[in-house]
Amino acid sequence: MLHAWNQVHPDATVQPGDRVSKVNGVSTISGMGKELRSPSVAMEIIRYPASFEVELSKRAADDTLRKLGFKFEKPGGHGLKELKITEVGKDGLLAEANNKQAELGLFHYVVASDMRISKVNDVEGDASLISEELKTAEVVKIQIRRAEVQKLAKEKVIKSTELLGMVAALAKPELFARAAAVSKSDGPGSSLEAESQPATSGDEAAAAADAAAAAAAAAT
Questions:
Q1: Which residues constitute the domain of residue 84?
Q2: Is the domain of 155 the same as that of 121?
Q3: Dmax of the chain from CA atoms?
Q4: C-alpha separations of 214 from 98, 152, 154, 162, 206 in Å
Q5: Could you tell me the CA-to-CA distances from 69 to 80, 86, 92, 114, 124 in Å, in that order?
Q6: From CA 153, how far away is CA 161, in angstroms rounded?
Q7: CATH of the domain at 88
Q8: What is the 8-class DSSP label of residue 107?
Q9: Do 64 and 119 have their domain in common?
Q10: Rounded-to-integer distance, Cα 55 and Cα 70, Å
Q11: How far, in Å, CA of 194 to CA of 176, rounded?
Q12: Alpha carbon 57 to chain centroid distance?
């Protein structure tokens, strides 16, 4: 049913990562679960931004420096250029900012563990430099990226890889079978040799490549 809705309403499609905030006017978790079993369902969907900014000032009114109030870690791989938030404390500047946003009902601006820091002030693209800016700057404008964005992208890549693997697994036996069928008419000796090597004619290779490309396109 949801797929049908997306086809009829291309300008209002429901996407992975979207959140159901109400079902038939009910907003509690248990209540929404019950309403989803109703004959008629009207859902209210919200979509959180992929990234947002939080500005924190360490300098307090009494001229002392306050703590940001969260822990982070640098990525293990060289290809990753962001910091990962591992813990948000109950006290500190970030906790206060989170509480203010929650009181206003702006939960999509609440920072939580596993979110990524992609930029601090004008520093980006280097996890070590971002970390240093967090430690030394008195005012930090932090760009936060939601972890589920990366997760969905990773799942998409995995799905594409699995589809390509399936295509290869299906194509390979077929090519072997064709080679065996052709060489079998020449005698038993040549049949064994043909089965040990996949057929590599231009038409068959092109067909396998086209199938792989189609699978990759379907996954995206």
A1: 51-145
A2: no
A3: 95
A4: 45, 21, 19, 13, 12
A5: 24, 11, 4, 15, 21
A6: 12
A7: 2.30.42.10
A8: G
A9: yes
A10: 14
A11: 8
A12: 31
Domain count, the chain: 3
Q: Helix, strand, or coil here: 51?
A: strand
Same domain, 112 and 198: no
Look at 21-30, 81-90, 97-106, 187-196 and tell me which has the smallest mean pLDDT: 187-196
Length of the chain: 220
Place of tokens 């209002």: 12
DSSP-assigned letters across all residues of 120-149: ETTEES-HHHHHHHHHH-SEEEEEEE-HHH
Collapse the DSSP code of 71 into the 3-class scheme (helix H, G, I; strand E, B; otherwise coil) and give the result: strand
**Helix spans in 46-198 (H):** 93-103, 127-136, 147-184, 188-195
pLDDT in tens, 167-212: 555 555 554 455 445 444 444 443 333 333 333 444 444 444 444 4
Kindly calculate the radius of gyration of the chain based on its CA atoms and give it in whole angstroms.
27
DSSP letter string over 8-49? H-GGG---TT-EEEEETTB-SHHHHHHHTTSSS--EEEE---
pTM, rounded to two decimals: 0.57
What would the two tokens of residue 31 be? 């209540």
The answer on pLDDT for 158 being more than 70 is: no
